[in-house]
Amino acid sequence: MSSTPAQTRPRIAVVTAIGGGKDQLQAPVTRFESADYLAYTDDPDLRVEGWEVRRLPQWSTDAVYARRRHARAVKILQTMLVPGYDFYIWHDGTHEVIMDPAELVRRFLPTDEHHFAVYRHKSRGCIYDEAKAILEVRLDDPDNVRRQVRDYRRAGMPRNAGLWETGVLIRRNSEVTRRLELAWWDQLARYSSRDQLSLPFVEWSLGVPISLITGGNVSKNDFVRRVRGHNFRDCSRPLGSGLRRRVQRLRLRIQRLLGASAPTEPVAKSPG
After folding, report:
1. CA within 20 to 30 Å of 125's CA: 36, 46, 143, 216, which one?
2. CA proximity to 199, closest of 153, 165, 150, 174
3. What is the pLDDT of residue 152?
4. CATH, domain range 5-226
């Protein structure tokens, strides 16, 4: 008996995770029939039209960043924690898909040789510069970040080896993807919870091919759009980091006006 198109089309999941009140889950403006929409949350009472809401795994004992690490489990280990799909499209809680997920998969993972696609970072191209930015605005435990960068240098990770915006990820359920996920998870469990810092190391150390999502950047494109900013009232971001960043930028401007030398560690935009 011949197969119908519905039977032969790939199974696609659009996945997000929110925890600790950091983001507010909203109904998709357009819900495409080519995909299932799965939202993982630590709010047992959350119900949002258009999403199948699932319980977020609670695994971390981190005193400050546990909620972020909980969400990272779903984000990184997608083929294992969200089984049964051929392709996955991850987006942070601040974004939503505005192009048919089936078209996104066809466009950016067109053959069996394409396993994992991500946006290039719009501001930086080096994990060492990323680490400086993280430390500047205290986006994670400084000891974990410094230890991570130290170990990457010792391993021979070169400068300017690339940096990706991990707010949007497209992946194929394949053995190559599972290797990448497990290695990426190992780095996050050992070091910083800032997954953008560890993904380039995983790509470099494993030689796993990563494809680029082309056409704009993670904040401005025709495929996935940013619909809201983070709500930091109830999450673990250290208080005052935005103010510190503004003060540092003002100090840098004053130094330039006075002809003073710039700081040895330039102020960078906060990582995405």
Report:
1. 143
2. 165
3. 98
4. 3.90.550
Q: Which of 29-33, 144-148, 218-222, 267-271 has the highest mean pLDDT?
A: 144-148
Closest by Cα among 118, 141, 21, 36 to 70: 21
User: Which pairing describes strands 35-41 and 116-120: parallel, antiparallel, or unpaired?
Assistant: unpaired
Residues 6+ apart with CB under 8 A from 164: 118, 119, 120, 121, 196, 199, 200, 210
pLDDT digits (tens, 9 = 90+) for 142-184: 999 999 999 999 999 999 999 999 999 999 999 999 999 999 9
Domain ranges for the chain, please list them: 5-226
Residue 156, sorted as left (phi over 0), alpha (psi -120 to 50) or beta, turns out to be: left
218 or 126: which carries more pLDDT confidence? 126
Sign of torsion over alpha carbons 56, 62, 68, 69: negative
Check residues 21 and 62 and name the one with the higher pLDDT: 62
Residue ranges in 137-174 assigned as alpha helix (H)? 142-155
Distance in angstroms (rounded) separating the CA atoms of residues 155 and 2: 53
What distance in Å separates the CA atoms of residue 134 and residue 195, rounded to the nearest whole number?
11
